[in-house]
Structure of Translation initiation factor IF-2:
Amino acid sequence: GGPVTVKELAGKMGREVSDIIKKLMTLGTMATINQEVDLDTAVILAGEYDITVEELPPEEDPTEIAEIEDDPASLVLRPPVVTVMGHVDHGKTSLLDAIRQTNVTAHEAGGITQHIGAYQVLCQGKKIVFLDTPGHEAFTSMRARGAQVTDIAILVVAADDGVMPQTVEAINHAKSAKVPIIVAINKMDRPGANPDRVKQQLAEQGLVPEDWGGDTIMVPVSAHQKTGLSDLLEMILLVAEMQEVKANPNRLAYGTIIEAELDKGRGPVATVLVQKGTLRIGDSIIAGTTYGKVRAMINDRGDKVKKAEPSTPVEVLGLNDVPMAGDVLAAVDEKIARSVAEKRVAKKRSEEMKESQKVSLDDLFKQI
Ligand code: GDP
Ligand code: MG
């Protein structure tokens, strides 16, 4: 990474050195053959020659490296990551709230839990991570960006309303992502609750309940009365064990940005779900086109932490800019963090520049 000399650039672009030097002159830069050219200038030059700045080859891209599968022997069980999906008003938010409230530790009881886009609960001493963004949005938009963060989908269906269009959509999303579905038949307290009708409708969608000889776990719950919640959590753990939800905690961290914002006082704040490895204070990181060093980490209970293991959601401070939800975060060698991020920025800029060049040409013709 880093800057290249005029000579190297000429080689890379397949041009004479003198040609490059002349071009640089027209751009207002006097350069010699061994002079270093910064990335921005190189990108502008490339644009002049109509050369696209290519993406890093996989062997140089830390994100791609991080995606390489770990040795099976290094994998250990990690908490499952769960998303709640379902039709509007069937009780996704209520269920998430009910689970959070009934499974808080004494430490935070009565206190305010930090909203960081995901939270962990304990069930029989085991952790489960819930993504706090109910509905399809988070799940599908992140998946559209290539990020797969969910291990299990909880499909919420109101017992008094049954399968609705967004229920079917949610089933299709989970199926195409190959994420196992557990059904929570909610609002069991309602007078019109009819779980058998819900099961019938779900069976028609290919989700046959276990008690009917199928393999879909369906748990009757009431978010309002907080009933059935521990059954639901137990089933989540059961499915997670069957799926062998595992990761290698002993490697550089790899995770996904769940949400990110610019905080007035703290600068860019990104909620990261660590998926592999362990993220530590002081680690050099890249996320999309942003980079930095982990300055502080805050967990879902608002506590400062020094490290975050697989399936831990944490707020990360220390990035130079706000990454996008769905961006992969990777801990990298300090030397390359900046150059990789800068290459990504340069690539994005060159693409934008090409777009704007097109536009300005069009404008020119319009004026003529
Ligand atoms: P979402 O759109 O799926 O997030 O649904 P909400 O959680 O916002 O709930 C929609 C409505 O259903 C709200 O008025 C809730 O109070 C109500 N609701 C949610 N769960 C239950 C439940 O278990 N029992 C009853 N009776 N009402 C519920
Ligand atoms: Mg909601």
Summary: The first strand starts at residue 4 and ends at 5. The radius of gyration is 25 Å. Residues 92-93, 134 surround magnesium ion (ligand 2) (CB under 6 Å). DSSP finds ten helices and 19 strands in the chain.
